């Protein structure tokens, strides 16, 4: 068998390949692994089994041949510029994303977007079918690819299919707005195991299946009817809260250079008594506006003052061509400008706002420098930032203010939990974090850290894949 036609026992299918384009020292284009948690979590499986990863390479209208990197086969799927607009920006990020996040922004539905979504999902399914070895395990990821499980099962009934949804699954009353709701459920039910972040998401999915497909489920086992009266199958739905690569983050946090950089960041910020931090993609689901409103009011009230307290808000650019993303950026920038205009002093801003991304080491230095971490998402599948902050606090200092509407809040019960829609609660929670007694902070952080380090992303992928291996096939 030639390299090109080699087939793999373990195949990951995700919207993006886990690599970024780089220009090498010789000026030639190449690839570098992107530092995502998912790839760290899957690394042990990728290397012990023969692993391949199928995904979009990040540029449109470009055909790229499969290639190997870090002992992984990478199989690029091509997207045209129109497909990027309709499948990715359109259906995935302007229909599904807002619909699955409590309709914080109104979802738009367009038939042309749906058609592109079907076409691109079919392309991913075909690529997976051509890459998977006999009886391989194929793990499909996220809301961009919900039709792939059933499409792949049609092409390759021999493979074991897992699906994991990284974002929330909405309550039926919201999901039911989707014109193609039944097709999405049928797509997902093509998997043997359908994983969600929280039990709440699993329950929402099972309710939608009951209402729209009419099948019953016991202990998360759905009886999927066979086609043309043939024998049915079992699809299992279960929650698998994702985690982070705790060990590598703790190693970075213990690195003297990173610690020096953290101290330097505080000095550069004028050595505030309290440094608060927010790290988010610039997305309307992350509650950045709510956070700034609470922070601004605390300054207005005189409860927080400059230069005693400062907030660093890192908002990495995201989906910038979409209308609601332009809007949230404008809102955030107006709010930052207003707070700084009213409360900043020469050389001492109330809010330091950065709209760009940082290398991983610098992110960890920010986590180490921050006394208070603010995670105020209005809805979030999990929120890895909350877990990352905790994992780096090796000396058990620091306080985490965490929205109840994140998946992470189910596990991180020792955080200061908050309803970000309740501005009074948000203000009081921020003040609680600012004024927390060191002993209480240490007790809480120790318990949070135990939770995050015992349950890292490698455990998560192991738990998912071993459950997938044992799902019964027939009723
Ligand atoms: C989706 C779901 C779920 C951010 N800025 C920089 C940077 N980041 C990294 C963070 C973190 C990741 O990006 C963001 O992860 P989140 O979980 O916070 O949020 P989403 O991007 O919305 O992720 C979410 C997740 O999938 C996993 O299942 O938890 O609910 O929405 O790791 O550190 N990293 C670097 N520079 C930056 O400037 N290096």
From TrEMBL:
InterPro entries assigned to the protein according to its UniProt record, in alphabetical order: Glyco_trans_20 (IPR001830)
Signal peptide start-end: none
Pfam families associated with the record: Glyco_transf_20
Gene3D superfamilies: Glycogen Phosphorylase B
GO BP annotation list: trehalose biosynthetic process
GO molecular function (one): alpha,alpha-trehalose-phosphate synthase (UDP-forming) activity
Family: Belongs to the glycosyltransferase 20 family.
Protein name: Alpha,alpha-trehalose-phosphate synthase [UDP-forming]
Organism name: Spelaeicoccus albus
């Amino acid at each position: 068998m030639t390299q090109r036609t080699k087939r793999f026992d373990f195949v990951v299918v995700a919207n993006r390949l886990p690599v970024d384009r780089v220009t090498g020292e010789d000026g030639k284009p190449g690839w570098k692994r992107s530092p995502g948690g998912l790839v760290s979590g899957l690394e042990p499986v990728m290397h012990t089994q023969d692993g391949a990863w199928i995904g979009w390479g990040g540029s449109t209208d470009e055909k790229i041949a499969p290639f190997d990197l870090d002992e992984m086969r990478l199989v690029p799927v091509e997207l045209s510029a129109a497909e990027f607009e309709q499948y990715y920006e359109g259906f995935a990020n302007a229909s599904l994303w807002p619909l699955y996040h409590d309709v914080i922004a109104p979802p738009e539905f367009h038939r042309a977007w749906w058609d592109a979504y079907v076409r691109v999902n079919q392309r991913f399914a075909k690529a997976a079918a051509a890459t998977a070895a006999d009886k391989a395990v194929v793990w499909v990821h996220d809301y961009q690819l919900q039709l792939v499980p059933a499409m792949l099962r049609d092409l390759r009934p021999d493979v074991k299919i897992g699906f994991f949804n990284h974002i929330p699954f909405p309550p039926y009353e919201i999901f039911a707005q989707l014109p193609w709701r039944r097709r999405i459920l049928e797509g997902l039910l093509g998997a043997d195991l359908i994983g969600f972040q929280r039990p709440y998401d699993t329950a929402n999915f099972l309710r939608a299946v009951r209402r729209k497909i009419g099948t019953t489920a016991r202990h998360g086992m759905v009886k999927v009817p066979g086609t043309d009266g043939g024998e049915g199958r079992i699809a299992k739905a279960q929650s698998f809260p994702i985690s982070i690569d705790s060990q590598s983050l703790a190693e970075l946090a213990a690195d003297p250079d990173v610690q020096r950089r953290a101290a330097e960041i505080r000095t550069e910020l004028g050595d505030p008594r309290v440094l608060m931090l927010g790290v988010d993609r610039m997305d309307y689901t992350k509650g950045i506006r709510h956070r700034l409103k609470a922070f601004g009011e605390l300054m207005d009230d005189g409860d927080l003052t400059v230069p005693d307290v400062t907030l660093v808000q890192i908002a990495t650019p995201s989906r910038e061509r979409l209308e609601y993303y332009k809007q949230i950026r404008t809102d955030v920038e107006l709010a930052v400008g207003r707070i700084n205009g009213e409360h900043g002093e020469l050389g001492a801003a109330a809010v330091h706002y950065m709209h760009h991304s940082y290398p991983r080491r610098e992110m960890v230095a920010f986590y180490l420098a921050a006394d208070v971490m603010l995670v105020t998402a209005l809805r979030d599948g999990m929120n890895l930032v909350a877990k990352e902050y905790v994992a780096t606090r090796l000396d058990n200092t620091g306080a985490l203010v965490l929205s109840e509407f994140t998946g992470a809040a189910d596990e991180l019960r020792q955080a200061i939990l908050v309803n970000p829609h309740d501005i009074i609660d948000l203000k009081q929670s921020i003040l609680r974090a600012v004024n927390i007694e060191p002993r209480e902070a240490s007790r809480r952080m120790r318990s949070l850290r135990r939770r995050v380090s015992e349950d890292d992303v490698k455990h998560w992928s192991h738990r998912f894949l071993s459950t997938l291996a044992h799902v019964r096939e027939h009723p």
